[in-house]
Design a protein that fits this description.
- With about 400 residues, the chain is α/β, with parallel strands linked by helices.
- The chain has 2 domains: about 120 residues, Cobalamin-binding domain (Rossmann fold, 3-Layer(aba) Sandwich); about 250 residues, Aldolase class I (TIM Barrel).
- About 35% of the residues lie in helices and about 20% in strands.
- It has a 7-stranded mixed beta sheet with strand order 6-7-10-11-12-13-14.
- The longest helix is centred in the middle third of the chain and has 15 residues.
- It is globular, with a radius of gyration of 21 Å.
Amino acid sequence: MKPDLTLIFPKSDFLINQTVFLPLGILYISSHFKRNDKKVQCLDFGIGHTVDMVEAEIVGVSITTPQREDAFNIVKELKQLDKYTIAGGPHATHMEKECYSAGYDLVIKGEAEYEFFDAPSNVDDIGFPDRDALPIKKYKYYINNIPATTLITSRGCPFNCSFCAKISKSCKIQSPERTVREIIDIYLKYGFKAFMIFDDVFTISKKRVRKITELLDKEDFIFRCFSRANMLDKEMCELLKELNVKEVGIGIESGSQKVLDKNMKGTTIENNTIAVKNLQDVDIRAKVFLIVGLPGEDEQSIVDTERWILETKPNDIDISIFQPLPGSDIFGNPKKYGIKFNYNSKNQWYKGTPGKYISNVRTEKLTEDDIVFHRDRLESLYKNKKLLR
């Protein structure tokens, strides 16, 4: 019997490796439909699935902006098969007209679970992602050399960085009890004892982190998560240590206070330095994420960033080039931020292949080529090549 719905996650050719993380977005939707007695097929084109594997007459495609080219090619192929097509995800939320112009029959904005059947009354009522819908063991990610998988314990972010595009203005946080139930469920079904918590900011609440730790008392799990620098005081870092967190990723963005302020980051250079130190003091690795080419970037801000790396000595860094995302304040107001960009250019996005980055942005002081040059130079000097993945 044919499924009622096929869900597709497009390729991410800009990534070094497309088989690292499960696409949890389509797995949440699959779970929601199955709880309402519908049959669902999930396909991930990043692991080799193709259009000719589509079984349902109704097909949903989850789209992020870097994937839009592949997603628009997919809809052309689906239309040749006379399929009814639905676009969803962050890009569809912010670029509705573009998705319709590309050929999609329906565009869903926001979180899809709230568009079909009875909407969950709160985030705890959302079912676990349907991890059986894809071959979970094909995705290879490790924390301390232990096979790991992904987990989301909250949706959204309460902060307003100028470069960020939100799918929803709200921030929904699961209860500690709901989070622990899912961790245990994953362990019992699939054997994973290491978890990448993919929340934008896992450290929003000390009370919640403390309760999760208490509920997992004596369980031999390890974690990696993301945080903001100004939420990593000594107490929080000690809580993360108690939870057995091995690494925290921090969006530092720049070593220039001028750049941080211009982009409404809401953190300071001092916050960033202290966060790294606090993590390292409790033996948690500090991985920092930097962006070259944000509004306000110039030769001096690059020098400031390099100085910050040298003085602070984070355990690992990722360096991307700035690409304005639809839905962000910068994308909608480039003149306000003093940048120019070509939305329709061929881009290489975050975690791209070294040596193949292409910028579509220029600041008031740096050209597109300058931005790529500085990104590549910083990475070549300060990124451990064994950690490129």
